[in-house]
Write a structure and sequence with these properties.
The chain has 412 residues and is an alpha/beta fold. Among the domains are: 52-191 and 270-368, Alpha/Beta hydrolase fold, catalytic domain (Rossmann fold), CATH 3.40.50.1820; 373-412. It is built from 14 helices and 9 strands. It has a 9-stranded mixed β-sheet, sandwiched between helices. Helix 2 crosses helix 13 (333-353) and helix 8 crosses helix 9 (248-258). The longest helix is centred in the C-terminal third of the chain and has 42 residues, at 370-411. The termini are far apart.
């Protein structure tokens, strides 16, 4: 019996080793493909210097990091766009949107949600969606206390927006002209399935917080491990963040953002997200211009969650993007930028004409990012042509070398 158990153990270890090796090979191939796609965004700089940095103190004394960018041409009668990032992300995840909005002449406020980025880490008691809504109110009161507002939330940031709407309906009624929900949900059911289905996903969701809490004291030792397992790590991040080919540069940027989040923070917020239900909050937005955007291949907040939001907002515009995952604002930035600018324009027209968004028909559109697809095909075509030229040159060198060898043999 002992021998059998030992044999099974050895077999399991061998299978695990083989699986790890296979995963490593697959990750290496994926990494090579992403490196070739770096030509998609060769000049991308993810850094941004804000006009103003603020420290906003939340209701429980947690200090929140806030950044404000104001174009020279902006005035207080124009809208301020407030961007709220998602779970395990931070301000830099909005880099493409804040630049586009600034270029269009809008003031932009970005902030690190509590326990993320440069904001203070919260205690577990206040790691809730309700508290995040109160935090957003504090940010608005400090960074943009007057003038019209456009609220944009990605993933957990969308939940934060819903919480604000529920607790501060007066602010929404008086100042909010438009809201955008990007890859988010109004209910936490099924959000921890991670695309594995309810059975496996439920086990991951239940074990996740406990496992992360146990790993938290050892997180500082994972730096060297991350460096050695970078290609596997990138492949995991790529799978759950994107649904189309992206560059290694973008995946590495994403990995660094996500894994900068302490494990104890992940463990604290997972139960809050799972237990969230903000459907009733949406009733306060019935007469507001609302945009709902989701990726068709989003594994973390599947499309059905966006559809459930749209069902409760009769005048909303629902945009489903093909070949897009959870981090759609980084994967298809030009497309998302265009949708946000169109949203603000529609809201401005509504206000001018006195039209309530709830009186307009609901719109649902499926969009393919054709321009980006062309760039991907172009990069791969150029890379294939380069490889073909290299093979032809190598064949020519081999032919010359063989001819030389033949001549030397004949002389001898």
């Amino acid at each position: 019996m002992v021998r059998v158990g030992r044999a099974i153990g050895i077999g399991a270890a061998a299978a695990a080793a083989a699986g790890a090796a296979a995963a490593g090979v697959a990750a290496d191939r994926a990494a090579a493909d992403r490196r070739r796609l770096d030509a998609l965004d060769p000049h991308v700089d993810f850094r941004h210097t804000p006009d103003v940095e603020l420290v906003v103190v939340a209701t429980d004394s947690v200090k929140l990091h806030v950044e404000v960018d104001t174009p020279d041409s902006w005035n207080v009668r124009q809208p301020t766009v407030v961007l709220s990032h998602g779970f395990c992300l931070s301000i830099p995840s909005w880099i493409f949107q804040r630049r586009a909005l600034l270029d269009a002449g809008y003031r932009v406020v970005t902030w690190d949600q509590r326990s993320h980025g440069r904001s203070d880490v919260s205690d577990a008691e206040h790691s809730t969606i309700e508290q995040l809504g109160q935090d957003l109110r504090a940010v608005i009161d400090s960074a943009c206390p007057e003038g019209p507002l456009v609220l944009v939330g990605h993933s957990m940031g969308g939940m934060t927006t819903m919480s604000l709407v529920r607790h501060h309906a007066d602010l929404v009624r008086e100042r909010v002209m438009a809201v955008a929900f990007i890859a988010t949900s109004a209910n936490g059911e099924g959000l921890t399935d991670l695309g594995f289905g309810p059975l496996v996903g439920r086990a991951i969701g239940q074990a996740g917080p406990r496992l992360l809490s146990r790993l938290a004291p050892h997180q500082r030792w994972l730096g060297p491990v991350r460096r050695f397992g970078k290609t596997v790590e990138d492949s995991v991040v790529d799978r759950f963040s994107y649904d189309s080919p992206v560059s290694e540069k973008l995946v590495r940027f994403t990995s660094d953002l996500i894994l900068a989040t302490p494990f104890e923070v992940m463990a604290a917020f997972i139960p809050a997200i799972k237990g969230m239900d903000e459907y009733e909050s949406l009733t306060a937005l019935v007469d507001k211009e609302v945009l709902v955007v989701n990726g068709e291949g989003d594994l973390l907040t599947p499309p059905k969650h966006s559809a459930a939001i749209v069902e409760r907002l009769p005048g909303s515009e629902h945009v489903v993007v093909r070949d897009a995952g959870h981090l759609i604002m980084l994967e298809h930035p030009e497309l998302v930028n265009g949708q946000l600018l169109d949203l603000i324009s529609r809201a401005a027209v509504d206000l001018e004409l006195g039209v309530a968004a709830g009186a307009k028909p609901r719109v649902r559109r499926f969009i393919t990012d054709i321009a980006r697809g062309r760039r991907v095909r172009g990069v791969r075509r150029d890379e294939a042509a380069e490889r073909s030229q290299e093979r032809a040159a190598k064949a020519a060198r081999t032919k010359v070398k063989r001819a030389g060898s033949t001549r030397r043999r004949r002389r001898s």
